[in-house]
TrEMBL record:
Residues 177-193 have a biased composition (Basic and acidic residues). Residues 177-199 are annotated as: Disordered. This is Phage protein. It comes from the Bacteria. It comes from Pseudomonas lactis. The lineage of its organism: Bacteria, Pseudomonadati, Pseudomonadota, Gammaproteobacteria, Pseudomonadales.
Length: 199
C-alpha cells in the first residue's frame, strides 16, 4: 500500500502566504510541522507574503463594504428617484387636467363669440327694443358696445392667444415636442400664470 505524497506546492503556497500557522498547514496536508520547517529551510521559503495577504484581506473587506454601501446608496437613490418621479407625474397629471379645463373653457368662449357674431344684428335689434324706454341711452350704448365689432375683435384676439398658449402647454404636458426641455413644470406654471393674467 502506497502512502499519499504531500502536496508540497500547496504547502509552500500556504507557508509563504503566512495566514495559517505551520501546525494548521501540517494538519491539513497530513505531514508533520517539523517536516514543513525542514523543507522550508532547505528550499529557502520565507513567510514574506503575510503583509500583502493582510492588505488584500483588508482591501476585499473594504471593497465589500463599499459595494454594500453602494448597494444601500443605490437603493436609496432608487427610492429618491421613485419619489421624485411620482411627484413629477402627479404635477404633470394635474397640469394636464388644468390645461384640459382651460382648453374646454376657451372652446366654449370661442363658440359663444361665434354665436354672438353670427347673431349680431338680431342681438342689436333686441338691445334697441330692450332699451327703447331708457332716458339717457347709457345702457343701450354699453350693451351695443359689448356686441360691436371692436369688442368681438379684442375677444377673438385674447381667445386666440389663450388657445395658442394652451396648445403649447398641452404639447409639453403630453411630451409631444421633440425639443429639449429645461424645466417643463416651471414653464407650464409660467404659461398658466400668463393665461390667468390675460383673462
Amino acid at each position: 500500500m502506497t502512502t499519499k505524497q504531500p502536496d508540497w506546492e500547496a504547502i509552500e503556497r500556504a507557508y509563504r502566504a503566512g495566514s495559517l500557522s505551520i501546525r494548521t498547514i501540517a494538519e491539513r496536508q497530513g505531514v508533520s510541522d517539523t517536516a514543513i520547517r525542514k523543507k522550508a529551510k532547505v528550499q529557502g521559503w520565507a513567510r514574506d507574503l503575510s503583509d500583502q495577504v493582510r492588505k488584500e484581506v483588508r482591501s476585499k473587506l473594504v471593497r465589500g463594504e463599499v459595494r454594500n454601501d453602494q448597494g444601500a446608496n443605490c437603493e436609496l437613490d432608487a427610492e429618491i428617484i421613485e419619489e421624485a418621479a411620482e411627484e413629477g407625474a402627479r404635477v404633470v397629471r394635474s397640469h394636464r387636467r388644468d390645461i384640459r379645463k382651460a382648453t374646454n373653457l376657451a372652446n366654449l368662449l370661442m363658440d359663444d363669440l361665434l354665436n354672438t357674431i353670427q347673431r349680431r344684428e338680431e342681438i342689436e335689434d333686441a338691445i334697441i327694443d330692450e332699451t327703447d324706454e331708457d332716458n339717457n341711452g347709457m345702457r343701450r350704448a354699453s350693451m351695443l358696445a359689448a356686441v360691436a365689432l371692436p369688442s368681438n375683435s379684442k375677444t377673438l384676439f385674447q381667445l386666440s392667444s389663450a388657445m395658442k398658449n394652451l396648445q403649447v402647454l398641452e404639447r409639453q404636458a403630453f411630451s409631444l415636442d421633440e425639443k429639449e426641455k429645461t424645466d417643463d413644470a416651471d414653464e407650464i406654471s409660467k404659461m398658466m400664470d400668463e393665461l390667468s393674467q390675460d383673462a
